[in-house]
Amino acid sequence: MQALYAVSFDIRSAQEQSGRVYESLRGHLADWLGHHGRIPAPSVTELDRDGRAVLVGKFPGHGDRTVSWTVAGDELTRALRMTIHQPLSTGPAQFVTRVTVSQSDEGGGGLRIVMGREIPDGWIAPVQDPQLKRPNLLRAVLGDQGLEVRVLSQLAMGRYERIREESHADVLLNVLALRTRLPILLIHPRDQAGWSAAADASGQLAGLSQVVTLNYVTAQAVRRAHEQVAVPSGGARLGLARPRPGTPRSLA
């Protein structure tokens, strides 16, 4: 499979309810497969054991989806791995989604999603199909108030963070200097299109990048500290690790 997207999350119960994480993730997975009851799909109970199913396509022109899954582990540590194949309408290629939900012996769990495609001739090119985006499974998990979802110890919410005061910009500059963090997409919206782009990016990039929005004051604060990550008015820039001026650099 040519992997085009991969993301992993560490998940714990927000209410400290041991064992709830795996059950919640499995429930979200079943709801997503059945399009929230709109199409026949495997139930939560059926996901307790290995299985296989064929689901009708969610969108006109898309073929049936072939779903297979395996379950391993015991009551303390377990994992469910699912693979979904869906033919693409533009040729013999198939779009493939692999989802793994797991439970650790400490009561937490994990979610991993890999998306890509299988092509008989092995040719690598972007998937030209706007209907196949990040699975709504991820949106449901991020929106579950009972779950605490993290990547590299950073809370993942699937929405952007507003940086509106200079004191908050100083905190952002400290975060930009960290090396063990996700990239941060800095956006300076000037109109509704800019705010819509920020909302879309925060959802599509969940687990890959944090998204923050700046106003004129905070954008200028970032520019003064880091000219390399200065955000143009109405534009955006990806912020990688940038030590703050005056910060000693380690020697290797």
The topology string of helices and strands comes to EHEEEEEHEEEHEHEHE
Q: Uncertain regions: pLDDT < 50 for 5+ in a row?
A: 247-252
Count of helical regions: 5
Strand residues, percent: 25-35%
Could you estimate the helical fraction of the residues in percent? Answer: 10-25%
Query: Strand order of the main beta sheet, please?
Result: 2-3-4-5-6-1-7-8
Instruction: Summarize model confidence as the mean pLDDT.
Output: 86
The shape, in one word, is globular
Distance between the termini: 37 Å
Write out key terms for the chains shown:
eight-stranded antiparallel beta sheet, 5 helices, globular
Could you walk me through the main structural features you see in this protein, from its secondary elements to its overall organization?
This protein is of the alpha+beta class. It is 22% helix and 31% strand. It has helices spanning 20-33, 136-142, 166-176, 192-204, 216-225; strands at residues 2-13, 51-55, 65-73, 78-87, 94-103, 109-118, 147-151, 154-155, 161-163, 184-187, 210-214, 236-239. The strands form two sheets. Strands 2-3-4-5-6-1-7-8 form an eight-stranded antiparallel beta sheet, covered by helices on one side. Helix 1 packs antiparallel against helix 2 and helix 3 packs across helix 5. The longest helix is centred in the N-terminal third of the chain and has 14 residues, at 20-33. The two termini are 37 Å apart.
